[in-house]
Amino acid sequence: MISDWYVWISLLKALILIGLILQVVPGMLFIERRGSAWMQNRLGPNRLGPFGIFQGIADAVKLIFKEDFIPEHVHKLFFGLSPFVSMLPSLITFAVIPFAAPILINGETLTFQVADLDVGILFTLAIVSLGVYGVMMGGWASNSKYAMLGALRSSSQLISYELSMGLAVVSMLMVYSHITLTPMVEFQGQALFTIAGITVPKWGFLLQPVAFIIFFTCTYAETNRLPFDLPEGESEIIAGYHLEFGSMKFASYMLAEYSNMLTAAGLTVTLFFGGYQLLPGMSWLLHSLGLSGMTYEWVRVAFQATAFLIKVGFFMWTFVWIRWTLPRFRFDQVMDLGWKIMLPLALLNVFVTALLIAGGVY
Amino acid sequence: MRVKQQKPLLQRFYWAEILTGLWITMKKVILHRTVTYEYPEKRRQYSERFRGQHYIKSVQGVENCTACMLCPTVCPALCIHIEAGERNNKEKYPAKFDIDILRCIFCGMCEEACPEDAIKLSNIYEMATPTRDIYNKQFLDIQRGKDKKGHIPKLKGKGVQPQRPDFPEAGLKEGAVNPWAVGDTRQREV
Amino acid sequence: MSPEAIFFYLFAVMAVAFSLVTVLKRNPAVGAFSLVLVFFSFAGIYAILGAHLVAALQVVVYAGAIMVLLIFVIMLLNADSPSLDMDRTHWTLRALSLAGCATLFAFFVWAFQNGSLFPQPGQFPPQRVAELGGSTKLISYLMFTEYLYPFEVTSALILAGIVGSVTLAKRQKVKRGKA
Q1: Is there a contact between A259 and A224 (Cβ–Cβ < 8 Å)?
Q2: Does B38 contact A at CB distance below 8 Å?
């Protein structure tokens, strides 16, 4: 059923994806520190390398060489296991997100996502719901009050916002009428309307702004980022569930958090911002190059991947931007927002979308 | 007493406030005005009244201090220790003048109390050493920074060089009149 | 060995091993986390068989929600210390149960090899499923057209469960006594 070639290509794509994620994490560290510093009228780290771009590598090296302590009172098995359990789902979730449209090479289709699954976005939702375990295990294994409190808060926050996220995705599924991600992106390539020669494509946030707002907010809650930061808030419960972890274990938690951010940004872009569809000026540039045949295909793939990465980069910047602008929600406000506002709003959105589809608007 | 605040409608939707906040932070990133001094390339310029490292002012090679013991008396941290001695011309002078720089709180009371304009605080603030120093009289006389040849090296970096305290005895030319000298201005025997 | 065989053996070994850990370990928390891994490996086996939707739903529902609830309960009740007053069962009972399990296993192996238990091809053999656009599409189409009534009845059943649990967990309003 599966050819050997397919297995090797999938392995290669998986390796490339892991490499990408592991490179993005030090980059995000650097951008977070410089960006947050500029927002606070100060300079960030600028000593290592030009403009301090090697700061992420320096942080990684520091964390590797730090002493790996295991406190006496922890549950040893789960303490050692929970950073891995936290890191695994965050690395896997990116597998279904396409970077570019498929190419036909010698009759075989090469897709630019690691796994072209039948269930598409359900896979992502499934693995995201596994992300709760790393938090819970970490907090509970630490045998400390702050860590336990942080773990409980974080897990209840995560499962509450999963629901609204799923419902927002459901309304997008109803509009796109596909569950795999590549047809979704192809759908968003169509034109919505044309004003004065400028074509506005059918990007998701134009079709379903309410679903976009709900999904966007829920991704912030899913990745434990401000303003839903209470589980790991520093001044409140002193780093919460990753309190007792040092050096590489803490680095694994940070890696998991940043990979979750990357996946959330990737999903937002794919569902709502046209995925790998080219940005306004780029298609003109692509056609003006005048290539044809296989060269054109590969250049098109390069352009699409670049457009995707630019959009994902913008949303990663938005994570940093909102983190350093908004204050933290109190926990009862978080739960109120999740159950009393987001969930009814998402349900209402599904209902209204169904009415609009029946009425022929979409 | 509960005060009911009636906010305007646009503020009660969080979005207007959130977007305003986001715009403010974005402006900060775009305009990028930092208030950081990148030490050691750039240094802050402090005023003349800045209370930094101590020194004993000398006039024509002779320190002004007459060991009157006013500064150890007034010092709140009790960091000055003076032992008086007698010169050949029956003048008191400090044979031993120690300032424990680790105890000093840099309040400047000794400078205010001194009637002879002897102990003063310069605006040198780079005083970190790897050992626990006590500034003795020799150090306070000639001030930090002079190397073996008597030159004062420049501090590293392009920043503002902190002002070196005046060395009247170092800079006075032959025949110049020292305005601080009272009475006999001939070189005294030490 | 084909890739499917490799992955099948991997997931099968994982499932069996972690099931044994679930049953044999005294610490309930270790058992609960091993059960999560059992469900995860089941999902892998379903995916190998081509039932992608069932695999995804297994992870979402079982491993992602039900087990989270169970582990919540274990964590909140602090039930991770093993019961101290439980003695080991008598060796005869243990030997007997092991013999019973081995007999049952042998019987299943014999039955699968010699019986005519191969499922008859039903309405949707793999080729037809692939023609119709994949199992997910087919299942969702059938669920909302042909099997709509069981779907709605299931959701009514779940609603009954929710209402029951809310009623059980609701706080009783304390009546104020006459002052």
Answers
A1: no
A2: yes
Q: Is A256 among the domain residues?
A: yes
CA A255 vs. chain centroid, Å, equals: 13
Q: For chain B, which chains pass the contact test of at least 3 CB pairs under 8 Å? A: A
Interchain pair A137, C33: CB under 8 A: yes
**What is the Cα–Cα distance from C61 to A190, expressed in whole angstroms?**
35
With beta carbons under 8 A apart, name residues in chain A contacting C136: 118-120, 122, 179
Query: Which chains have 3+ CB pairs within 8 A of A?
Result: B, C
Cα distance between the two ends of chain B:
78
Average pLDDT over chain A, rounded to an integer: 87
* Burial readout B88-125 (b: 16 or more C-beta within 10 A, e: otherwise): eeeeebbeebbbebeebeeebbbbeebebebbbbbbbe
Provide, as residue numbers in chain C, all residues whose Cβ is less than 8 Å from the Cβ of A179: 136-137
Is CATH 3.30.70.3270 what the domain over B54-171 is classified as, yes or no?
yes
- The nearest alpha carbon in chain A to C53 belongs to A119
Quick one: which H or E segment has residue B173?
Answer: none
Mean pLDDT of A185-210: 86
Closest Cα of chain A to C150: distance in Å? 21
Residues A83-122: tens digit of each pLDDT: 889 899 988 888 899 998 888 887 778 888 888 888 888 8
CB contact under 8 A, B25 and A321: yes
CA distances from A158 to A242, A259, A294, A337 (A): 16, 16, 45, 13
B140 sits in the region (left: phi over 0; alpha: psi -120 to 50; else beta) called alpha
ipTM of the complex, rounded to two decimals = 0.81
Could you tell me if A122 and C53 are in contact, meaning their C-beta atoms sit under 8 angstroms apart? Answer: yes
Instruction: Please check whether residue A13 lies inside any domain of the structure.
Output: no
CA-nearest of C9, C11, C18 to C36 is C18
Report domain extents, chain B: 54-171
Structure confidence at residue B190 (pLDDT):
43
- Closest-CA residue of A relative to C139 is A119
pLDDT category, B157, cuts 50, 70, 90? low
Residues 106-125 of A with CB under 8 A from C: 117-120, 122-123, 125
Tokens at residue C153, please? 């009845």
pLDDT of residue A190: 86
Structural domains in chain A (count)? 1
Indicate whether A36 belongs to any domain: no
> Inter-chain contact A148–C80, Cβ cutoff 8 Å?
no
- pTM score: 0.83
For tokens 């003006």, what's the residue? Answer: A288
Domain, as residue range, for A205? 72-358
Q: Is B31 on the interface with A (CB under 8 A)?
A: no
**What contacts A99, CB < 8 A, 6 or more positions away?**
A112, A113, A276, A304, A305, A308
Check CB contact under 8 Å for B21 and A326: yes
Contact C53/A122, CB-based, under 8 Å? Answer: yes
Q: Do the Cβ atoms of A130 and C59 come within 8 Å?
A: yes
Asked if the Cβ–Cβ distance from C29 to A78 is below 8 Å, we say yes
Phi, psi of A110 (to 5 degrees): -105, 110
- What is the widest separation between alpha-carbon atoms in chain A? 70
pLDDT at C82: 61
A37 CB neighbours in chain B (<8 A) are 34
* Nearest-Cα residue of chain C relative to residue A78: C30
How far is the C-alpha of A3 from the C-alpha of A73, rounded, in Å?
Answer: 50
What SS3 class is residue B136? coil
With a CB cutoff of 8 Å and minimum separation 6, the contacts of A121 are: A96, A169, A173, A179, A180, A181, A184, A267, A271
Q: Does residue B32 sit at the A interface (CB-CB below 8 Å)?
A: yes
DSSP state for residue B129 in the 8-state scheme = -
In a domain, A52, yes or no: no
